[in-house]
Specification:
The chain is of the alpha/beta class. The chain has five helices and eleven strands, in the order βαββααβαβββββββα. The radius of gyration is 15 Å and the shape is globular. The structure holds glutamine.
């Protein structure tokens, strides 16, 4: 199983480490060729303007769209969630608000109940760093968790997006979801 981590900018190394600990083979992706043969994808956190420019510069927008639209299991976190929204790559039927929690509380931690995704293991410790929230979403989007009434974890088909940083908390359940989803889609194909 080969999982790509978009590695143009941001905290891609932490994601790669967690995926490796879970037994996946990991590839840092910086070019369209790097997307070939991937079974899953992580869009990490970072800075969404810088990431948008880098995606354009490398000609990655179209091949990223094709990969995710083809059903490849995908996890987007923080700036990665912004990149997936309808104002950016358009792969998730949501609009996000950047830096939504404001300057006063730019970073915080909280426990989130994530329903079925929690896999019976209790709430997930969520680290928010200058995080976005979901401002609006389509009917096909499942809201998994909210903070102050704003969605911060959403899923639409093969795409899971969260406003926080699961790669920093030591709780690997969201990366495990991605790997489980890849196994499931491989099972469906065989
Ligand atoms: N505030 C950043 C942005 O708008 C996202 C922060 C993050 O990914 N931790 O791009």
């Amino acid at each position: 199983m080969l999982v790509g981590v978009l590695a143009l900018q941001g905290d891609f190394e932490a994601h790669a480490r967690v995926l490796g600990e879970l037994g996946a083979e990991v590839r840092e992706v910086r070019t369209p060729a790097g997307l070939q043969g991937l079974d899953g994808l992580v869009m990490p956190g970072g800075e969404s303007t810088t990431m948008t420019l880098a995606i354009e510069r490398e000609g990655l927008a179209q091949p990223l769209r094709a990969l995710v639209a083809a059903g490849t299991p995908t996890l987007g976190t923080c700036a990665g969630m912004i990149m997936l929204d309808s104002d950016h790559l358009g792969l998730l039927d949501v609009r996000t608000r950047r830096n939504a929690f404001g300057r006063q509380v730019s970073s915080f931690e909280t426990d989130l109940a994530l329903g079925a995704l929690a896999n019976g293991g209790g709430p997930l410790r969520a680290i928010f760093i200058r995080a976005p929230w979901v401002e609006a979403h389509g009917a096909g989007v499942e809201v998994l968790a909210e903070v102050d009434g704003h969605p911060v974890a959403v899923r639409e088909g093969n795409v899971l997006a969260v406003a926080f940083h699961p790669e920093l908390s030591g709780d690997r359940r969201l990366h495990a979801w991605l790997i489980g989803r890849i196994r499931q889609s491989e099972g469906d194909r065989s």
